[in-house]
Design brief:
137 residues; alpha+beta; six-stranded mixed β-sheet; 6 strands; elongated
Length: 137
């Protein structure tokens, strides 16, 4: 499984939850406000690579899944929904890696963070998931 395959797999899990992939993987700036609710984006940061025999390597990468929730004037409710959505997403990723594909595992250290920029009508939650997977070179 490659890094690109894993990005596609995680995006599929998000889409299956009814969310929409953002126009840009780097921010939500180009996303129309009317379509921001449930928009997600995924970024990845390479962490560690362990060489293996036969042109393979074990990779440990951090995948950040960013989810936007429109809140207008209901920030506490949006915060609760984002927290619940990200916790459910974490469970779905663990189950997918362990039971469905068997091609990756979630390492210890997952984190959830919720934030809001002044003047924006939406809050953004981030699920940071450390994943371990094997790659054939």
């Amino acid at each position: 499984m490659s890094r690109a395959d894993l990005l596609e797999r995680l995006a599929g899990i998000c889409v299956a939850r009814g969310w929409t992939q953002a126009v840009s993987p780097f921010d939500f700036d180009t996303m129309p406000t009317t379509a921001i609710d449930g928009a997600f984006r995924i970024t990845v940061t390479a962490q560690q690579t362990v060489p293996q025999l036969n042109y393979a390597e074990d990779r440990f990468d951090l995948f950040d899944i960013w989810l936007a929730k429109r809140h207008v004037a209901q920030a506490p409710e949006a915060y609760q929904v984002l927290t619940a959505d990200l916790e459910a997403l974490y469970g779905a990723i663990v189950r997918d890696g362990d039971d469905v594909t068997g091609e990756y595992t979630v390492a210890a250290g997952a984190q959830v963070e919720i934030g809001h920029e002044n003047g924006q009508e939406f809050a953004v939650g981030r699920l940071q998931v450390p994943l371990n997977y094997e790659v054939s070179l």
